[in-house]
Amino acid sequence: MIVIMKQGAAPERIEAVVKRVEEMGYKVHLSRGEARTIVGIIGADDYKIHQDSFLALDGVENVVRIMQPFKLASRDFVEGNTCIDVNGAKIGGEQIAVFAGPCSVESREMILETAHMVKEGGATFLRGGAFKPRSSPYSFQGLGEEGLQYLAEAREQTGLPVITEVMSPDEVEVVGEYTDIFQVGARNTQNYSLLKALSRTSKPVFVKRGMSTTIQELLMSAEYVLSGGNMQVMVCERGIRTFEPYTRFTFDVNAIPAIKELSHLPVIADPAHGTGKWELVGAVAKAAVAAGADGIMVEVHPDPSKAWSDGAQSLTPKRFTKLMQELRAVAEAVGRKM
Fold first, then answer.
1. Share of the chain above pLDDT 90, in %
2. Which of 202, 201, 106, 221 has its CA nearest to residue 154?
3. Are 40 and 122 in a shared domain?
């Protein structure tokens, strides 16, 4: 449930509503728009609260029951679109964010080389996995903290904020020492212990859609992070499992405008995992931007034929630069920038 304050409501009127919510044993989240302040009631079942208990308070314009199960992620809760600022780089605004880098951090030299290449090509964030969840226990699992140190060095040299995956609650602290954005991978979308741990952090959280996860389930995963107090959340469409075997997954471009309709959270597209083929990445990336994506995540490797993981879907630096040029034209056509 949300309490919508009248335009220009005095601070003491807002405080009176907050006090009433807290007296009822619930938590509060304030969303201050340009015109109005919205008081979100967290932890309450809407049917247990009588709307009249708030409508009688001075300064209250309306009380609205949010029908969606994801309350804080709902577009009813926040006016406009959420924009996340990461060291000056924006996610969710007019500028389309670009997350680029290798699937895995393989060595210091490799990640530094790639970081400089993607920065030159137009990337705004550096991606790279230090902890890797793999389908096979015999596959490369990542360099761990050593890889995180290399990512931090790459950030220092290029100025690109870093996004990297965290796999368990036990890793949140160590990953948090190095990363600027926590990435929750597709295999951990419904790892609720991990989501709860991330809800208590102060850094942005990037939640990927699971391989068999519905749009509602994805937004409910985001809700876990939001409900714990961390409002810096973005979600990622990365393809879902269908009966089609030609591509690695089926990229659900429908999900982008659907999520934008349902939620105020930034939506990122990952055409690399959605296709599994570098030849298809460019076309799907352009489709995602045209559909309203707030960012693109692609894998870039100096020599994909020698990549330790996901080489088949990785772009060379030259191909990445070419894609960026093409994406700028699409972004301009839909009123965005890159």
1. 75
2. 106
3. no
